[in-house]
């Protein structure tokens, strides 16, 4: 089944370029476009795509505010923030708003395709250099809203291994290959981690794992 995508960017040339890149993949389809944050919210609620490629800087509503509105409606579409900026304030704002991923616009087409698939599958994704800075900031308590370090005694040995690999930024498929389990089993372990540790999303699991100093052998 094809992943349905809506592109939200105020520049027509960018939208056209992104559409061309996305649709070079057989399993990805662009079903709509929006030039403002407000129209992005309307189009997403109307079309119910799997993934929204959301620019940060747009008129009427910026991408973060648009993401907040979509999250507030309970919309099931996953938001992948695309921007030329990797300033920390944008990353934190996007994650607090409920975005599932953050990717810079200079990423290669193959990375964009992979990011859309990862987000559509329910995983979270951050550009690698953004992930490193985010973890460093959260682990030093430099960002408001840092999740508290929970007790890990409630976890099984396997769950601790999975948490450590989530902390490395691995997807469910990559965790499966590392631990010789199926991606579906890895997904079940991640769901249990979210529940047991009271984490909102996969990004918070990354932070918890790094705060706890877990290694894959933990």
How would you characterize the overall build of this protein?
By secondary structure, the protein is an alpha/beta fold. It folds into 2 domains: 3-128, Rossmann fold (3-Layer(aba) Sandwich); 147-211, Arc Repressor Mutant, subunit A (Orthogonal Bundle). 51% of the residues lie in helices and 14% in strands. The chain contains 10 helices and 6 strands; from the N terminus they run βαβαβαβαβαβααααα. It has a 6-stranded parallel β-sheet, with helices on both faces. α6 (128-139) packs across α10 (202-211). The model has no long low-confidence stretch (mean pLDDT 84). Keywords: DNA-binding, Phosphoprotein, Transcription, Transcription regulation. Residues 148-213 form the HTH luxR-type domain.
Q: Report the CATH architecture of the largest domain.
A: 3-Layer(aba) Sandwich
Q: What's the level 1 CATH class of the largest domain?
A: Alpha Beta
Number of helices: 10
Number of strand segments: 6
Helical coverage, percent range: 40-55%
Low-pLDDT runs: none
Number of domains: 2
* Overall body shape: globular
Spatial strand order of the main sheet: 2-1-3-4-5-6
N-to-C order of helices and strands: EHEHEHEHEHEHHHHH
Radius of gyration: 17 Å
Task: Decide which structural class fits the backbone.
Answer: alpha/beta
At the fourth level of CATH, the homologous superfamily of the largest domain is Response regulator
Put the structure in a nutshell:
The protein is of the alpha/beta class and 218 residues long. Helices cover 51% and strands 14% of the residues. The protein has two domains: 3-128, 3-Layer(aba) Sandwich (Rossmann fold), CATH 3.40.50; 147-211, Winged helix-like DNA-binding domain superfamily/Winged helix DNA-binding domain (Arc Repressor Mutant, subunit A, Orthogonal Bundle), CATH 1.10.10.
């Amino acid at each position: 089944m094809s992943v349905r995508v809506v592109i939200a960017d105020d520049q027509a040339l960018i939208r056209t370029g992104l559409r061309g890149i996305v649709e070079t993949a057989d399993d990805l389809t662009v079903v709509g476009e929006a030039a403002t944050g407000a129209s992005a919210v309307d189009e997403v609620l109307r079309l119910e795509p799997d993934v929204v490629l959301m620019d940060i800087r747009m008129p009427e509503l910026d991408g973060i505010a648009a993401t907040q509105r979509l999250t507030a409606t309970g919309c099931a579409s996953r938001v992948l923030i695309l921007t030329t900026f990797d300033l920390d304030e944008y990353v934190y704002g996007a994650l607090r708003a409920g975005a599932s991923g953050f990717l810079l616009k200079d990423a290669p087409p193959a990375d964009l395709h992979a990011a859309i698939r990862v987000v559509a599958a329910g995983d979270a994704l951050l550009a690698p250099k953004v992930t490193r800075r985010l973890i460093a900031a959260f682990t030093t308590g430099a960002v408001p809203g840092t999740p508290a370090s929970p007790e890990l005694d409630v976890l099984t040995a396997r769950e601790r291994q999975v948490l450590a690999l989530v902390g490395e930024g691995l997807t469910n498929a990559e965790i499966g290959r590392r631990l010789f389990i199926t991606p579906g089993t890895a997904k079940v372990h991640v769901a249990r981690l979210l529940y047991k540790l009271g984490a909102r999303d996969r990004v918070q699991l990354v932070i918890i794992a790094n705060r706890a100093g877990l290694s894959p052998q933990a």
